[in-house]
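S.,

As promised, the heme C run. Input:
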Amino acid sequence: MRRLRGIVYVLALIPVQAAHADLSAHAIAMNCLNCHARGRTESAALPTLAGLNAAEIERALLEFKYDKRPATLMPRLAKAYSDAELAAVAAYLARH
Ligand code: HEC
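Predicted complex:
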């Protein structure tokens, strides 16, 4: 019975996981826009993402993640996400 409850619990989580995948690029992007909000003054310390295409954003994120681009904050953030999540958020940000 205990084991059955465990299986039911796991099955119940599957649709939640699928919905989460759809929402994650949007959810991650909301974090990014706390700092990289449109219309904010561009500065070297806090660059705007407007004008970068998806490939450029993705490349920058992967370089931050794998310590190939010197930076202060982004390497820590980029390491929190999978490469697929970084690609998805780059595509999302380039579209919005
Ligand atoms: C707490 C503020 C903050 C958040 C949140 C943040 N960034 Fe950044 N971002 C920075 C800073 C500061 C830099 C400059 C590089 C550095 O020092 O880390 C930067 C640089 C970048 C660059 C390079 C831009 C260029 O023209 O060189 C990209 C791309 C980028 N961020 C994307 C993102 C994405 C995507 C997210 C969300 C996953 C994100 N950032 C979240 C502060 C932030």
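The first helix runs from residue 2 to 35. The pocket of heme C is lined by residues 28, 31-32, 34-36, 45-47, 49, 57, 60-61, 71-74, 77, 89, 93 (CB under 6 Å).

- D.
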